[in-house]
Design goal:
Elements (H helix, E strand, L loop, with lengths): L1 E8 L5 H10 L7 E6 L7 H5 L5 E5 L4 H4 L2 H14 L3 E5 L7 H7 L8 E3 L3 E5 L6 H4 L2 H8 L3 E5 L6 H12 L6 E4 L46 E8 L2 E8 L7 H10 L4 E8 L2 E8 L2 E7 L6 E7 L5 H10 L4
The structure holds guanosine-5'-triphosphate (GTP) and magnesium ion (MG).
Length: 324
C-alpha cells in the first residue's frame, strides 16, 4: 500500500516548494513518487522537481477533472503498479478543483493500492486580501477539502496579512489544524496524519475550453521545428507556454528581465543559457532564480495571467533574446 497525500493550494502558494522540501528530507531507504498536474500545457513543475530523488510523473494541461479521464489514471496506475512507491505525493494544479481527484483516490479501484492520508492545503495568506482570489471557488474548496492548512510564506506577511489569517481561522472549525511556515518547511510527520475531512464538496467550476486542448502532444516538438507554443484557458485564467528545442540558448540577462517584467501572476521557466540551465519561478513579486550546470533537453517557458495579455508581444521579445 502506498501512503498517499494530496498537496493542494492555490496558484503559486508553494506546493512544489513544499514537495521539494519533503523530498530533501526523505528517508534514504524509501521510494517516493510525485504526480504533478499543471494548468499550463507545457509543464514546468516536472523540470523544477527533476533530480529530487523521486519517481516523477507529470500531467500538464488543465485541472485534474479534465485530465481525470485517461492521462491522470494512466499516470496514477503507472506510479502505483510499476514503481510501487512507499509514498506518493500528488500536486494538483492550483487552479483546479479538488473534488474529482479526491473521488478518484477514494474509488474502489485504488483501495488495494493506496492509503489516502491527510490532504495538506498551502495558503499564502496575502491572497486573503485579494477579492478575486477569495471569490474563486477552487481557492475556497481547496481549503474546505483540507485536513491541515499550511500558511506558507510567513516571511512575507505584513501585520494585516497575519490579521487576515487570524480572521479567516476565526470563520473555520476551531479543530482545524493550521501550521505556519516559510519555504514549505513543514514537519514531514504531517504526511502520516490520517484523512479525516468528510465534507461533501460541490462539483466545482467547469468552464474549460476542452476543444482547445492539445494535451500531451504539446510536450514534444515535432520535426525540425525550433519552437512552438500552447495555450490554455479556464476559470478566468489563461496560460501561454513555449517549448524550444535543445539547441536554443537564451541571453541570461535578457531572459531575467523578460521574466521579471512580464505582466502576469505566474512565470515559470527552465531554459538553456550559455552557463547551463536557468530555472525561474515567479509568483507576483516572489521570484526564485537558480542556475545549474548542464544542458536541458529543451527549454520551457510558461506564463499564467488572469488579465487579458498580449501573448504575441511577449513572444516577440522572447524570440529576440535567443542567442542561437
Ligand atoms: N517569499 C516567499 N516565497 C516563497 C515561499 N515559498 C515559496 N515561495 C515562492 O513562491 C513561488 C511559487 O512557489 P511554488 O512552490 O512553485 O508554488 P506552487 O504552489 O507549486 O505553484 P503552481 O504549481 O504554479 O500553482 C516561487 O517563486 C517560490 O520561490 C516562502 O515561504 N516565502
Ligand atoms: Mg507547483
Amino acid at each position: 500500500m502506498t501512503k498517499t497525500n494530496l498537496i493542494t493550494g492555490f496558484l503559486g502558494s508553494g506546493k512544489t516548494t513544499t514537495v521539494l522540501h519533503l523530498l530533501a528530507n526523505k528517508p534514504q531507504n524509501e521510494k517516493w513518487a510525485v504526480l504533478v498536474n499543471e494548468f499550463g500545457e507545457i509543464g514546468i513543475d516536472g523540470a523544477l522537481l527533476a533530480d529530487s530523488g523521486a519517481v516523477l510523473k507529470e500531467i500538464p494541461g488543465g485541472c485534474m477533472c479534465c485530465v481525470n479521464g485517461l492521462p491522470m489514471q494512466i499516470g496514477l496506475n503507472m506510479l502505483l503498479k510499476q514503481a510501487k512507491p512507499d509514498r506518493l505525493l500528488i500536486e494538483p494544479t492550483g487552479l483546479g478543483h479538488p473534488k474529482q481527484i479526491l473521488s478518484l483516490l477514494t474509488s474502489d479501484v485504488y483501495q488495494s493500492w493506496l492509503t489516502l492520508n491527510a490532504t495538506l492545503c498551502l495558503l499564502d495568506a496575502r491572497q486573503l486580501a485579494d477579492p478575486r482570489v477569495v471569490a474563486n471557488e477552487n481557492f475556497r474548496d481547496q481549503l474546505a477539502a483540507a485536513d491541515i492548512i499550511i500558511a506558507n510564506k510567513t516571511d512575507a506577511y505584513t501585520d494585516s496579512d497575519n490579521l487576515a489569517l487570524a480572521d479567516w481561522m476565526g470563520t473555520q472549525d476551531p479543530a482545524l489544524r493550521v501550521e505556519s511556515v516559510s519555504q514549505g518547511k513543514i514537519n514531514p510527520n504531517l504526511l502520516n496524519e490520517p484523512r479525516r475531512n468528510q465534507r461533501e464538496l460541490p462539483d466545482g467550476q467547469h468552464h474549460h475550453a476542452h476543444q482547445s486542448k492539445q494535451g500531451l502532444a504539446a510536450l514534444s516538438l515535432p520535426g525540425h521545428q525550433r519552437w512552438r507554443r500552447a495555450l490554455n484557458e479556464a476559470g478566468g485564467y489563461a496560460s501561454c507556454g513555449w517549448i524550444f528545442d535543445g539547441d536554443t540558448i537564451f541571453d541570461t540577462a535578457g531572459f531575467l528581465d523578460w521574466a521579471r517584467q512580464a505582466p502576469a501572476e505566474r512565470v515559470k521557466a527552465v531554459v538553456r543559457i550559455e552557463e547551463g540551465i536557468l530555472k525561474v519561478n515567479r509568483q507576483g513579486q516572489d521570484l526564485k532564480i537558480e542556475t545549474l550546470p548542464g544542458a536541458p533537453l529543451d527549454s520551457r517557458v510558461e506564463i499564467i495571467s488572469r488579465d487579458k495579455t498580449d501573448w504575441n508581444a511577449l513572444q516577440s521579445i522572447l524570440l529576440k533574446i535567443r542567442l542561437t
